[in-house]
Structures are given as C-alpha cells and as structure tokens.
User: What shape does this take?
Amino acid sequence: MALPGFLTLQRLRCLAILALLCATAGVRAQDTLRVLAWPGYADADLVKVFEQRTGAKVEVTIIDTDDVMWQKLNRGPAEDFDVFAVNTAELQRYIQADLVVPIDVKSIPNTAQQLPRFRNLKNIPGLVKGNKVFAIPYTYSEMGLIYDRQQVKEPPTSLRSLWDPRYKGKVVLYNGSTHNFSLAAMVLGDETPFQIGEREWPAAVEQLIALRRNAQGYYAQPQESVDMFTHGHAALMFANYGSQQLQMLKKAGADVGYAVAKEGALAWLDCWAVTRSAKKPDLAQAWINYMLEPEPGAALLARQGLANTTSESPYVRPQDRLKWLEPVENVERRTRLWERILAGDRAAKVLAP
Assistant: This one.
C-alpha cells in the first residue's frame, strides 16, 4: 500500500535533480566577459549595471604593473581574458605578438561622444596599424607639475622650474628611467623625447645629474609621493601620476596647485583592447561602448582623479600639449644609465660602456 507514495517521492526527487541540472546548464550557458584592468577602471557598481543590461557575467582581474599584464596575456593558447586596458606605448608589443584583434569602431557608437583629439585615432601613435584600429581611448593623465602654493607663489610655466636653484632639496621626483630621460629630452628642446639620438645622450645625462641636486627624494607609487611631499615640505613635484596625485594631496590637506608646462607634458593614454582569445568579441566591444558612457567617465574623475575621453579635463587647458607615451629607443640603456645617476656617479662614469 506504500508503493504509490514511494513512487511519488521518487518522482519528486527526479524532478528536483532535473531542475538542478537545468539551473546548472543555464549558468554554464550564461555569457562571461573576462576583464583585465587597472584599479578604479571596473568598479563593482559599474560592472553590475553592465551585467543587468546584457545578462552576462563579468569577471574582473585587477593588475598594478605593465609587466604583470604582459605575463597574464602572453601565456600561449590558454589566455583567460577578453578585453583589457593598456596604454598606447605598451599596446605595440601586443599587436606585434598578435595578441589583439582589430576593433570595429562602428560597433562602438559612443565613440561619437568623445572629444575630437580622441576621435582622430590616426593622430594617436600606436592605435592604428594597416588602417585597422586596435584600441579605443578610455582615460589618461598628463605628467604635470604639482607645487606648494605657500612656497611657489606663481604656477610654474616651464619644466625648467624643477632645476631652479631656489628649490634645492625640495623637489620630489619619480624613480623611473624611461620617463626621466624623456623629461630631460623635452627640457633640451627635443620634440621626439622617446627617441634619444646617439649624440644627445651626454646632454640628457648632464641634465638628470643636475636635477639630482634638487631632489628631496624619488618615489615609485602615488601614496609614497604624497607622504614625501607633505612630510618633507616639498616645493615642487614631477607628477608621474598627474591629477591622481593632485587629488590625493588635496585630500591629505595640502595646499597645492597644478600646472602643465609650456614644453608640454608626457602623458599616458589607456585604451580598451580586445584579445585574440576573446570568446565573445561582440560582448567585449559592448563593454568598451559602455565604458564611454557618462557614468563610468564621471566615476573615473570623481573617484580616481583621472580624466575621461568624453568630457574636458579640469586639469588640462585646450592649449596644453600632451605627448602620448611611445616605445623608447632603448629601455635597457635608459635603465642602466639611470641607475648610475641615482648612485651619484659623475657623467663620465654614467656614460662609460
């Protein structure tokens, strides 16, 4: 007499198992977008909006150096990402290694909302190869000059202010060989600071040795620069992280100003690119399009102090010249010479083979 109940129980169990299998199959069938980005580029609330719109799941991996990004994307056929944020100088090796695919700009209608300087992609070194676009500009920061308003009464107008004898021991500098040699080249009037000619090396070395005399210290990370500037009562800073450092200093209570010199400013431009291993290229391009909407752009500015490509930056004037980073002539040489300069060597020893 208990048989019907037993059958009913078995049936219910089967239905439950079937429902679980269906649910699991649904999860597996859901599209997943794998994003590789820098801090602040894919905050949880922004990701949630994209997921709700598309029905896709977004997996975000955050990196903090170009080297880590290269390691994650250059691992052979088992790459784990669909779309990533990369600066224009670094993008070159991804194109050369065939790790990225061209982007259909027509599939990203929000590019029409970008400022003219970012819509003219051919004028931005490194984005276009063989008439194919490999990345879309997203955010940028210029390497401006931050100054203490109490010690520097007027905004500095030239990069040469970093060398001013009045600020001996009061200048905070970035510990980076590539950018510092480009900085020296700009001070010497070189319009192509990323390609130092053989005859130009001695003058560039002399400039950086002279700058060393003004250095209060050298930083690597933004917070380190804030601590050095505030605790050391610095007068000037070469802001490798630009407006991001300015915002951090203001939050720390520092009375600081910001200026882009007449020689222009080195500037990094981060762009979104699609990997060759992207399982859903259309979804990756939808992500790029979404990132160009007002909300993500406003979040960049408010939370990170970083400019977006769809509205004018409050830190840069229309007449300011930005020099987008490009690959340099010899990374190893710049590194070797910079290490000797930091060690306190004289020019002859710095330039020795």
About this structure: The first helix runs from residue 3 to 29. The longest strand covers residues 265-275. The chain has two domains: 30-140+268-315, 142-266+327-350.
